[in-house]
């Protein structure tokens, strides 16, 4: 009974086969990562091209000269409000209309401001409520016929309560 020694080549074949499988798996992983990264780069380039093709419209602001008004005070104290603001509009028609009717707009704002109290206006919530009242006031027609005013925001440029 003689034992035959194992073939020397079978051990090497097993090692080569294991190394070959590792290389194939690594290559497949690298190819998958490259494909996904390259696909993401093309998607980003496409969205960048779309963004460049559609420039954002420039905002349109209608500045209103600052006001100084007396406020209603608690216990007959005299308080002042100094406020400057701009209205943000979405179209030229709204801008032109507001500029043409600025004296009427300023008169309405003056009446609105004098109806406020200092305590209300000193809080951020009070300023937000005043902005909402201004937007609501702008919905009331100033002329007949009047285009639909597309005012999107009231921006305070100066605001001092004294």
UniProtKB/TrEMBL annotation:
It comes from Azotobacter vinelandii (strain DJ / ATCC BAA-1303). It is found in: Cell inner membrane; Cell membrane. Controls the rotational direction of flagella during chemotaxis. GO terms for biological process: bacterial-type flagellum-dependent swarming motility; chemotaxis. Belongs to the FliL family. InterPro entries: FliL. This is Flagellar protein FliL. Coiled coil: none annotated. It comes from the Bacteria. It is a single-pass membrane protein. PANTHER family: FLAGELLAR PROTEIN FLIL (PTHR35091). GO terms for cellular component: bacterial-type flagellum basal body; plasma membrane. Keywords: Cell inner membrane, Cell membrane, Cell projection, Chemotaxis, Cilium, Flagellar rotation, Flagellum, Membrane, Transmembrane, Transmembrane helix.
């Amino acid at each position: 009974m003689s034992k035959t020694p194992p073939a020397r080549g079978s051990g090497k074949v097993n090692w080569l086969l294991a190394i070959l499988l590792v290389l194939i798996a690594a290559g497949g992983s690298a190819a998958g990562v490259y494909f996904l990264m390259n696909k993401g780069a093309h998607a980003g380039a496409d969205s960048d091209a779309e963004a460049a093709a559609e420039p954002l419209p420039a905002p349109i602001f209608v500045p209103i000269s600052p006001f100084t008004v007396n406020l209603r005070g608690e216990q007959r104290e005299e308080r002042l409000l100094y406020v400057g603001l701009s209205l943000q509009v979405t179209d030229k028609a709204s801008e032109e209309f507001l500029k043409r009717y600025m004296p009427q707009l300023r008169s309405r704002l003056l009446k609105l401001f004098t109806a406020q109290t200092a305590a209300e206006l000193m809080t951020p919530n009070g300023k937000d409520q005043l902005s909402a009242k201004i937007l609501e006031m702008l919905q009331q027609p100033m002329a007949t016929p009047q285009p639909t005013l597309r005012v999107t925001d009231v921006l305070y440029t100066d605001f001092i309560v004294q």
